[in-house]
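Quick one:
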Amino acid sequence: MRKLTRVKLAHSLSTVLLSMALLVAMLIAMSGIPAYAEEEKAAPVAKEEAAPAKEEPIPLAGTAGPDNASVSVVFSAFNRYIYRGYELSTRSMVFQPSVTFSWMGFAANAWSNIDTREQATQSFVPDRPGQASYNEVDIKLSYTRSWGGVSLTGGYIYYGLQYAKKTQEVFLAAALDVITKPVLTVYRDVAGYPGIYYNLAFSHSAPLSMIMKDMTLDLGASFGYEQGTSPYWSTYEAASTSGGLDAYTGKKYSAFHDGMLMVGVTIPIVNNLTVQPVAMYTFPLSHDASRMVNGVSYNPNGALDQNFVYGLNLTYNF
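Output:
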């Protein structure tokens, strides 16, 4: 693997969005499962209850959320760490604690990853091979404003990586408060790995009150498109094609990138404390995302594979 990312479209943006929408429509039609809203990581985040749809006209000025401050603490444990389809751990357990403070539409989140036994993958070079490592701390700042069933969120993410170059992103997300909770988010890397990542995500929670009060079945899916915009994203060319040496000298990587399907169950334990067992399936969305050239990844960050992720989120809100 040559490099690792955090964050020329082959088609126009309209084609990208339309194609993503068609993928989601096909998924829903075939399975009857609404899709999932992603956060920043391949590992799922704790579910948040959506505000009920309002019948009154959409306020022109918009609303910024309740004026009471809230704090959410999440402790997650998974069999592997997958980020935008890239495998960042293998054959080890990862722990991912996070805390989020919210007030009046503003939110500040700190998220971290602890790998219990770092081992190399196509997309990951360990900083402590074979040992436990506290190898990532991310800081996310955001602001959300809503107009009835529509909301916009803008923000900034700092990726504090120990195993790769630190980087930063800005992002903008648009969400609709309908049954599948569609969210379209655009991330722009502005530091270490200049590029744009588009994510179209869906989620839905169904009550399981016949089993336990406030228990829910959580379903979801997400689909990503990666657009490299700097020489970092040059793809791998064989000498027979490039007329030179085997090297990352090809066109910038731009492709339908990663997909994810998720199922989970949120179970209340005591007041404000829930546990959510989760299972996910991640997979490449195109040939370019999984393509190999003479045994080397066409994508400079490593070829995407199919992966199963399972674990749980323990969440406390106060």
